[in-house]
């Protein structure tokens, strides 16, 4: 349940929806679990002010997959911001996820907070980077609204996970981004996808969050690609008027038994 007076956000990430319903990836029906996560999230909280979908909405991007995602998100009847991951086609996202309550907007404002959505995608590559335009966008938004606390959402992670195979895909200019964040204390939080596992650390006043996937999970602290048995999940975030962030990871009950343990990559 949300705290009275706080903004209530739902973060969904790494859906990996496939071209046809019922298709499986690594043994997992990703679309089935996306729907199950949405149902669980609606029971967790009856009201959300914003939904953030932080990349890898699809695995093999195509209009049909984005159309089905749109339909599921539209049914939430909540303002929803979608940003791209390394598996997405950003042009298709902007075509099919820009109607009604769904958009690929990069910025939304509330009374005490603003939320910025970044594009860390390098087309054709797994790793991330923030272009000069993205870095300039951050600083412009912060300087225009210095009195608003800020939450930033981006797909790729910017601090090491200590899983060496995953950290080859970290945002390449993370140091540059974190230097900017250090100059603007109104940035209170950064939430990411991509890592398919939970993260919650502090760098000074900046809280950095990583959120589980709505489908399969990666086992933490591994030197090579390793799947975890943890169930699909999502994150709820509360943004308080005094700049505090409270947050919780939620998962579907049980153990993900159908994962294909013979897979060595994705």
From TrEMBL:
Pfam families: Metallophos (PF00149). It is an enzyme of class 3 (hydrolase). Residues 9-197 form the Calcineurin-like phosphoesterase domain. It comes from the Bacteria. The keyword Amino-acid biosynthesis does not apply. Belongs to the cyclic nucleotide phosphodiesterase class-III family. This is 3',5'-cyclic-AMP phosphodiesterase. It comes from Methylotuvimicrobium buryatense. The lineage of its organism: Bacteria, Pseudomonadati, Pseudomonadota, Gammaproteobacteria, Methylococcales.
């Amino acid at each position: 349940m949300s705290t009275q007076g706080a903004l209530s956000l739902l973060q969904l990430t790494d859906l990996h929806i496939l071209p046809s319903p019922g298709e499986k990836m690594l043994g997992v029906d990703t679309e089935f679990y996306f729907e199950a996560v949405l149902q669980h999230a609606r029971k967790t909280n009856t009201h959300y002010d914003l939904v953030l979908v932080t990349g890898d909405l699809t695995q093999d991007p195509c209009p049909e997959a984005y159309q089905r995602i749109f339909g599921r998100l539209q049914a939430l009847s909540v303002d929803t911001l979608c940003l791209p991951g390394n598996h997405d086609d950003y042009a298709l996202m902007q075509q099919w996820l820009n109607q009604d309550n769904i958009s690929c907007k990069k910025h939304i404002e509330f009374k005490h907070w603003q939320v910025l959505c970044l594009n860390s995608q390098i087309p054709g590559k797994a790793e991330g980077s923030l272009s000069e335009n993205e870095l300039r966008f951050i600083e412009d938004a912060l300087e225009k609204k210095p009195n608003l606390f800020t939450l930033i959402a981006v797909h790729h992670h910017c601090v090491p996970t200590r899983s060496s195979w995953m950290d080859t895909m970290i945002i390449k200019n993370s140091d540059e981004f974190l230097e900017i964040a250090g100059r603007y204390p109104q940035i209170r939080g950064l939430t990411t996808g991509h890592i398919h596992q939970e993260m919650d650390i502090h760098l000074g006043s900046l809280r950095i969050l990583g959120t589980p996937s709505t489908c399969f999970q990666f086992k933490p602290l591994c030197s090579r690609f390793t799947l975890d048995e943890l169930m699909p999940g999502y994150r709820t975030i509360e943004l308080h008027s005094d700049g505090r962030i409270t947050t919780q990871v939620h998962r579907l009950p049980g153990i993900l038994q159908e994962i294909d343990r013979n897979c060595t990559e994705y």
